[in-house]
Amino acid sequence: MLKNNNIMVLMYHGLVSFDKNVPKGEDTREVGAGFYDLNVQDFESHLQWLQDNEYNVIVDAKDAIADRDNVIITFDDGENSNYSLAFPLLKKFNIKAYFFIIPPRVGRPGYMGWDEIRELHAAGMIIGSHGLSHETLTNLLDTQIDEELRSSKKNIEINLGAAVVTAFSVPRGFCNMAIVNKAVEIGYQYIFISERPRFPAGQVFNRVAVKRNWSMDRFVMAMDGKMPFKERIAFNVRDLAKLILRERGYNMLRRIVIKIFD
Ligand SMILES: [Zn+2]
Hints:
Blueprint: E1 8-12, E2 15-16, E3 38-39, H1 40-52, E4 56-57, E5 70-76, H2 80-92, E6 98-101, H3 114-122, E7 126-129, H4 142-160, E8 167-169, H5 177-186, E9 190-192, E10 204-205, E11 208-209, H6 216-223, H7 229-244, H8 247-261
Parallel strand pairs: 1-5, 1-11, 2-3, 4-5, 5-6, 6-7, 8-9, 9-10
Bound molecules: zinc ion.
Zinc ion binds at residues 76-77, 130, 134, 171.
């Protein structure tokens, strides 16, 4: 149901341990970002489960052939916990993941610096772009969308010293075909979204947002492409709201939906 290309793609954001290592300040984080801050022990349990169940964690989307045992792991926003908490566990399990970076936030409190990002890259992690402003792309002018896609890619590649940025994660999940086409024109090969797939398979990957309050059973259910009935209602409401409302109205509704269903 939630899969595109028959590949399960998991979307993580920040991890937390007891020291609450998350960015401070409401200005830079999305509405409800805290719902995605997973406890580091839960993340370790997920990796352990993937290993125990012999999942093949894809290190390059080009290898993402339709196989139910394939999975891609992604992290959005470039928070510091990606380096301090997720990276050691990924190394422990010898698993590679995608990290989607917002260049203007690099080095700011709570976010990774270029040294950390370069270390991830050197360890075989895949570094992608998550735009410049984290604004909803569908609200921007064509020239701004071009800038978000082009400059972020260039900036990351300059800082990595290698032309390796071929994946883009669409901020806040609002996307359309014009954005996909523009991204491909600029040189991206893979676009990761976080909504129901309405795009041709091949280059656009839908993702399942892993939530903080998930039990292990809920994670296993997601890996099966399933969702509890109550969540499915909330998902459909959210999906419809994204179609109808602009960002401001959507975020207002999201607060209400989170209250009701979470
Ligand atoms: Zn984001």
